[in-house]
Amino acid sequence: MRGEVSATARAGGGPAPLQKTMAEINVVALPGLPEIVRGDELGVLIANAVTKTIRTVNIGDIFIVAQKIVSKAEGAVVKLDEVTPSPAAEEWAAAHQKDPRVVEVIFRESRRIVRMERGIIIAETRHGFVCANAGVDASNVPAGFVTLLPPDPDASAERLRDALIGAFGRSVATIVSDSFGRPWREGVVNVALGVAGLRPLVDYRGCLDPFGRRLESTVMAIADELASAAELVMRKTAGTPVAIVRGAVEWVGEGTGRMLVRDASRDLFR
Amino acid sequence: MRGEVSATARAGGGPAPLQKTMAEINVVALPGLPEIVRGDELGVLIANAVTKTIRTVNIGDIFIVAQKIVSKAEGAVVKLDEVTPSPAAEEWAAAHQKDPRVVEVIFRESRRIVRMERGIIIAETRHGFVCANAGVDASNVPAGFVTLLPPDPDASAERLRDALIGAFGRSVATIVSDSFGRPWREGVVNVALGVAGLRPLVDYRGCLDPFGRRLESTVMAIADELASAAELVMRKTAGTPVAIVRGAVEWVGEGTGRMLVRDASRDLFR
Questions:
Q1: A265 touching B, CB under 8 A?
Q2: Does B80 touch chain A (CB under 8 A)?
Q3: Non-local CB neighbours of B95 within 8 Å, separated by 6+ positions
Q4: Taking a C-beta distance cutoff of 8 angstroms, is the pair B220, A187 a contact?
Q5: Is residue A80 less than 8 Å (CB to CB) from chain B?
Q6: A110, A139, A216: which to substitute to probe chain B, counting the most B Cβ within 10 Å?
Q7: B185, A262: Cβ pair inside 8 Å?
Q8: Cα separation of B245 and B259, whole Å?
Q9: Would the CB atoms of B246 and A18 count as touching at under 8 Å?
Q10: How far is the alpha carbon of B60 from chain A, nearest alpha carbon, in Å?
Q11: Which structural domain range is residue A127 located in?
């Protein structure tokens, strides 16, 4: 049996960077962004923050941007005082101690209710995303307001990418990201809503494994994994809604967030 | 409107590391592991590979290990020649051009079939994981064999952690990871099956956002996001089934992969 002898060379010294010749990615949160408000040119503000802090941009750097600030910049924000709840929204809200105006906004953002039980609304948005509350969210916005998902996250990602390429003259990729729950597992993870300049899915079908067997069904959702990696440094309350992944240049290419949305006709859970 | 002036300071020079004072994580694939076979002391082999290549281990380094090599080392492998399919397995296999012996193994690994349509089996394993084919997999194993999920991934993670702490004398965390599909979205992402030395869920409920609003429902599945980040460097066919995440020391603590499994009674999709 191999591996019976303990590793004898012990780790020495203090923290050391991982060796640079191996497959490696770095994920860093971008500090220095102001609080984002409607009308902000978000891409330019991100470029300015990069210039002040990280200073360099490499070809293939992937910028992951929280949906929340994209929605704020684009004005995808609703003032609850201006919302009149429908009777259905009033009824659900009363039964589950929710704000009927928020429930009304959720209904308006939904094209299909997937589940509505135990105070939880899982809805399909008009983009086709399936998520809690159709993406309507009251966190990280002033009291009395909620944010919606951006109307076209791929277009948002494309605009951000254009601004960053304009600022730095280098081809980068962008992801607009949000935290979604999942059936069967606890907790939420970040996923990619909008994508520009990146292949969101990498298809290993047809590749050979080390035994020469053809891989049959392995399509990795790279953009979602990048969004999750970014969330690890963005955190929820730290005020750093942008992260940069460096070292993932092989996935640069063409693609959209739309490609990550499974069509209802192919879905077993709608 | 802010941000109208383009960033004028352009990125200079060649590739540069990201500035080290910011929130940052590094993810590196571990080279140098041999092909794993039944009986291998996987933790010691990983420690030896670290000693040969990366050389140092930091307190709080998180080792993400592909389920496939854990199953191989533990002998969670089935020789298909020794499987006699049941009539139900024969019937499903014939209808969907599958190997009836593989279908039989999937049935044996399942405690509940969640969906069985269009040639796809989504099953709840005895651990409570819900995934395609109950985790039974023919890739990256010799022809005529399939791997099962490890019988107790948390115990596997704990053993790997013990071996690494034994080798390096520093507290590290471990995750046993596999690629799972998700409803509603295309592609698979890596998730954490077994966890040791790590808080798999980080609960932001009760924290304040920058507007002083209490976050209500944000529990991040950190272990799953770490598994996804690791997959980005592990890749499917590159033969590097171990990755190390450095810089995430704040999540070191107590926890299990079991904590990520939503109880069926709380699940809207079973």
A1: no
A2: no
A3: none
A4: yes
A5: no
A6: A139
A7: yes
A8: 21
A9: yes
A10: 11
A11: 77-149
How distant is the Cα of B58 from the closest Cα of chain A, in angstroms?
6
Query: How far is CA A156 from each of CA A176, A231, B6, rounded to the nearest angstrom?
Result: 8, 19, 18
The answer to whether residue B7 is domain-embedded is: no
Residue pLDDT tens, chain B, 270 long = 565 433 333 333 333 444 444 689 999 999 999 999 999 999 999 999 999 988 889 999 999 999 999 999 999 999 999 999 999 999 999 999 999 999 999 999 999 999 999 889 999 999 999 999 999 998 888 899 999 999 999 999 999 999 999 999 999 999 999 999 999 999 999 999 999 999 999 987 777 777 777 776 689 999 999 999 999 999 766 779 999 999 988 899 999 999 999 998 888 888
Residue A120: how many other CB atoms lie within 10 Å: 13
Helix axes B100-109, B87-96, angle to 10 degrees: 120
Residue A17: both structure tokens together: 């960077």
Strand pairing category for A202-203 and A219-220 = antiparallel
- The predicted complex's ipTM stands at 0.90
Same domain, yes or no: B31 and B125: no
Q: Which residues of B touch A16 (CB under 8 A)?
A: 55-56, 58
pTM beyond cutoff 0.80: yes
**Same domain (yes/no): A37, A164:** yes
Shared domain check, B158 and B123: no
CA-based nearest distance A180→chain B, Å: 10
* Main-chain phi, psi angles of B20, to 5 degrees: -85, -10
Query: Based on the domain organization, do B164 and B200 belong to the same domain?
Result: yes
Spatial separation of the C-alpha atoms in residues A71 and A77, rounded to whole Å = 7
Q: Which position has the token pair 């949305």? A: A261
CA distance B76 to chain A (A): 17
Q: Dmax over Cα atoms in chain B, in whole Å?
A: 71
Does any CB of chain B come closer than 8 Å to the CB of residue A167?
yes
